Amino acid sequence: MMMMMMIMMMMMMIMMMIMMMMVVVVVVMLMLLLLLLLLLLLLMMMMMMMMMMMMMMMMMMMMMIMMMMMMMMMMMMMMTFLCLIVML
């Protein structure tokens, strides 16, 4: 009887150990998954930031070109005016 009890106890201990190991492995896996998700999120954020920066740069360039065009137009207008005045 005592032997049986001992064997049963040993079995229980082994089972408990296995269960604990499984739990630990699962927890580790979950942590890894979380880390991966975080990394992905970070990457996405970085990409978004880069895209935003690119968009901003493009907008700035467009604005600059528009300004240049406006300046050119103004210069042309001024020149025409001057020409007109001189003609007169």
UniProtKB/TrEMBL annotation:
Molecular-function GO terms, alphabetical: ABC-type transporter activity; ATP binding
Keywords: Membrane, Transmembrane, Transmembrane helix
One GO CC term on file: membrane
Superkingdom of the organism of origin: Eukaryota
Residue ranges occupied by any ABC transmembrane type-1 domain in the UniProt entry: 1-70
Alphabetized InterPro entries for the sequence: ABC1_TM_dom (IPR011527)
Protein name according to UniProt: ABC transmembrane type-1 domain-containing protein
Organism: Dreissena polymorpha
